[in-house]
Amino acid sequence: MTDLMKYPAADIVDLYAHRWEIELGFREMKQHLMQNELTLRSKTPELAEQELWGVLLAYNLLRYMMSQMA
Q1: What is the C-alpha separation between 69 and 19, in angstroms, rounded?
Q2: Which of 41, 45, 46, 58 is 20 to 30 A from 18 (CA-CA)?
Q3: How far is residue 45 from each of residues 13, 39, 48, measured CA to CA in Å?
Q4: What DSSP string runs through 23-57?
Q5: Residue 19 half-sphere exposure, CB side, CA atoms within 13 Å?
Q6: What is this structure's pTM?
């Protein structure tokens, strides 16, 4: 990435700033979703199962996006 014509410095700076914003968003979601304990708000077994699937889906989407950015 040393070719200035192919990779202008301004574009790299812009992409880095954009990536940083994405990383901050992921950090916020991970801190909210992945606390030391999982507290389910649902009161019935069916809704608790649905909530667990939602947490698992969110976690896997975060990990997928992190691997795409790496």
Answers
A1: 8
A2: 58
A3: 49, 14, 5
A4: HHHHHHHHHHHS-SS------SHHHHHHHHHHHHH
A5: 12
A6: 0.43
Please tell me the distance from the alpha carbon of residue 59 to that of residue 34, in angstroms, as a whole number: 8
**pLDDT tens string 43-52:** 888 888 888 8
Coil vs helix vs strand at 19 = helix
Helices 45-69 and 9-33 pack at an angle, to 10 degrees, of 160
Instruction: List, for residues 56-68, the tens digit of each pLDDT value.
Output: 888 889 888 888 8
Tokens 């976690």 locate to: 59
